[in-house]
């Protein structure tokens, strides 16, 4: 599938080469959602069967509806994720319906984390998180292959040090 079309404007600066995240992030998010929804689904079914109250079948039906919504929305959300390294800053964009773009100047970065939970490691992805002095300007790039996450961490740390040294 192709990258979702992005309307020109504040969310698509001209000349910015966006890097997509791994499509394996879709699998990770769908597995997490399935694990989250299986307990309420099972509880709703058991409750409806044991009580024999017909309207209680609305509970598992609602959980299934949420599951279908997640299956439809998550792949689009993952395709909308991207990042771009520019000379002075890092751009991170996300969102389909509610879009956002975060611009983090390299000189404002305090440190860079690479994280991967058990499911992430199994799927071969990691998350890079940039920390700044302001908690509202932190940026997260999930779904990167571990090699790319490591390369990005080292590159961002080096660029951050170079920007601070230039002050």
TrEMBL record:
<feature type="domain" description="YdbS-like PH">
    <location>
        <begin position="79"/>
        <end position="156"/>
    </location>
</feature>
<keyword id="KW-0472">Membrane</keyword>
<dbReference type="InterPro" id="IPR005182">
    <property type="entry name" value="YdbS-like_PH"/>
</dbReference>
<protein>
    <submittedName>
        <fullName>PH domain-containing protein</fullName>
    </submittedName>
</protein>
<dbReference type="Pfam" id="PF03703">
    <property type="entry name" value="bPH_2"/>
</dbReference>
<feature type="transmembrane region" description="Helical">
    <location>
        <begin position="30"/>
        <end position="49"/>
    </location>
</feature>
<keyword id="KW-0812">Transmembrane</keyword>
<feature type="transmembrane region" description="Helical">
    <location>
        <begin position="55"/>
        <end position="74"/>
    </location>
</feature>
<keyword id="KW-1133">Transmembrane helix</keyword>
């Amino acid at each position: 599938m192709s990258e979702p079309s992005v309307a020109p404007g504040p969310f698509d600066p001209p000349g910015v080469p966006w890097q997509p995240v791994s499509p394996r992030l879709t699998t990770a998010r769908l597995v997490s959602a399935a694990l989250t929804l299986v307990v309420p689904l099972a509880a709703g079914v058991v409750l409806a069967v044991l009580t024999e109250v017909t309207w209680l079948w609305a509970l598992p039906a609602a959980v299934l509806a949420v599951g279908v919504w997640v299956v439809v929305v998550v792949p689009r959300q993952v395709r909308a994720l991207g990042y771009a390294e520019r000379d002075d800053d890092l751009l991170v964009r996300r969102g389909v319906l509610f879009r956002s773009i975060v611009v983090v100047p390299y000189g404002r970065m305090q440190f860079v984390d690479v994280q991967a939970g058990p499911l992430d490691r199994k799927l071969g992805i990691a998350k890079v998180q940039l920390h700044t002095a302001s908690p509202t300007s932190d940026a997260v790039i999930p779904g990167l292959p571990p090699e790319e996450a490591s390369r990005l961490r080292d590159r961002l740390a080096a660029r951050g040090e170079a920007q601070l040294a230039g002050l």
